[in-house]
Amino acid sequence: MSTIGLLAGGGRFPLLLAESARRAGHRVVATGFVRQTSPELEQAVDALTWVKLGEFGKIAAALKQGGATEVVMLGGVAKVRFFRDAWLDAAGLKILAQVAVRSDDNLLRAIARWFEEQGLPVVDPAPLLADRVAPEGVLGKRAPSEDEWRDARYGLELARGIGRLDLGQTVVVKDGVALAVEALEGTDACVRRGGGLAEGAVVAKAVKPQQDRRFDLPAVGPDTVEVMREVKARVLAVEAGATLVMDREEMVRRADRAGIALVGVR
Domain LpxI N-terminal spans what residues (predicted)? Predict the structure, then answer.
């Protein structure tokens, strides 16, 4: 039995990973960000230390004290918060100084390098969440129309394109026209912005071609469907075999009720 260190951001994926890891016989010691990580995590792990965003020295010390031999980084952290209210300690300042272009991937790789220097290698969380990866094909009752399939494939192509530029993972498309691409604002805001321009839009989400699988894998869930329902988007297309799906049964149930097609595409 190993001890996994979990650097937990927001959302439910840190909870799901902790549950899966403990079912597999691992111990899980975690750190959570104040006002970002769900308080529910405390009941799902063996130990939890609350930290402010940017307190990397405190994070490493807590994980080492808990016996962690490797680290998983999982859960969303709004990039805007990192620049607005991060409480950078000496380690945080060192990490930031090493990043000239502060894109998501560059920041995350710098953080991962620093943890490895502390003897805490950052590993891919996907093996612990294998049952939560999107399969290929239609997930719910409704299949896309021929035009929607065309937009879905085009949207995934565009999503990979913006991924190469390290901008984001999500694109909103309608009738072969890109309505919105994800940048700093995140997936939900991108969907609202693009979907608000035209009813019946297709939302596509893909892994960045150069994606480091240790962090920032694309993820969708019931909340994604709710945002799509608000703007009357009609299809969610994700990259099969690479996109994490949170609470799949609930997500499919909400999509079916809203008439939204869910598809995994390779």
Answer: 4-131
Residue 106 sits in the same domain as residue 139: no
Angle, nearest 10°, between helix axes 248-258 and 222-230? 20
Within this chain, do residues 156 and 107 fall inside the same structural domain, yes or no? no
The tokens describing 19, both together, are 């549950």
When the pLDDT of each residue in the chain is averaged and rounded to a whole number, the result is 91
User: What's the structural domain count of the chain?
Assistant: 2
| Strand 47-51 to 27-33 pairing | parallel
Assess whether 107 and 198 both reside in one domain.
no
CB half-sphere exposure, 41, CA atoms < 13 A:
31
* Chain segment 226-243, per-residue pLDDT in tens: 999 999 999 999 999 889
The rounded distance, in Å, linking the Cα atoms of 80 and 86 is 10
Which of 128, 155, 185 is the C-terminal boundary of a domain?
128
**What local confidence, expressed as pLDDT, does residue 35 receive?**
86
CB atoms within 10 A of CB 39: 9
Distance CA 30, CA 19 (A): 12
Under the banding of pLDDT at 50, 70 and 90, the label for residue 101 is low
The residue from 77, 109, 128 where one domain ends is 128
pLDDT for 124 beyond 80: yes
Tell me the residue ranges of DSSP E strands in 2-130. 3-8, 27-33, 47-51, 70-74
Domain encompassing residue 107: 3-128
